[in-house]
């Protein structure tokens, strides 16, 4: 990829010699961790020969330069206002604490809207975690595929039906707009941008110096906690709870419908309405969840875990985990194994 460069600025340097300008846009309630990610990842990237900075990273706010409050007891004195967005090649919108119209009505606040309106056409826009809700509220994600923290994906779907929300991935690269999942997934996305801009060697060098993996296996689906259905709940909840106790056994659609005292057709329709999945999809996910727990908490072999989860064979378990989580059982255990 050819990285877009700034036009000549007040320093008189031609565009070809200027580092790629990254503007990190924050407002009150920003989360300090997410603010630090682009500064760290882009800020230490250097050319392999002359060790010159590849990026110029600045922080700006939605209004005049001022002290901006975080979600904790930290304030940051920001020296740039929204005018910095007018000369940016990449704009990063980090997460903010969970309040305001972006989280309640799906509307981005006026000062953020005005700031985003200053971005030049063709500028790359990136969100970290719930920053995607700010972009969605501004209409920037309409008709696009995007992601955010897994605990907000359903909210994003509800508030922004025109956005194609992918809840399972660590980040989505949609060309000029990129979104990342929760918190540390912002690191994955920034490293991806380094690879896209300058190749794997630069990205790997930054990852080594930051002491993070240059690429993580799988997506955020492997980090999602899934609730256990209430056996006394309405509709198909009792049947789902019944099935959860028998995941090691063969479970058929007809058997589930019979337990719910419904026809297969009615049961399937009600099930999808309540869970958003078909009974077969739901069963696979629950069996994968059971396998996740056994991989984390026990030393059982993959073969024995496959039997206990109803997959029958290690090959079947590997295939379903790869499809559902993007990782193999061995990769998952290596990441999440709880020491004895």
From TrEMBL:
Signal sequence segment: none
Pfam families for the chain: DJ-1_PfpI, HTH_18
Coiled coil: none
UniProt key word Disulfide bond: no
Matching CDD domains: GATase1_AraC_1
Keywords: Transcription, Transcription regulation
Domain HTH araC/xylS-type, chain residue ranges per copy: 237-335
InterPro entries reported for this sequence: Class_I_gatase-like, DJ-1/PfpI, Homeodomain-like_sf, HTH_AraC, INH-QAR
Record's protein name: Helix-turn-helix domain-containing protein
Organism: Myceligenerans pegani
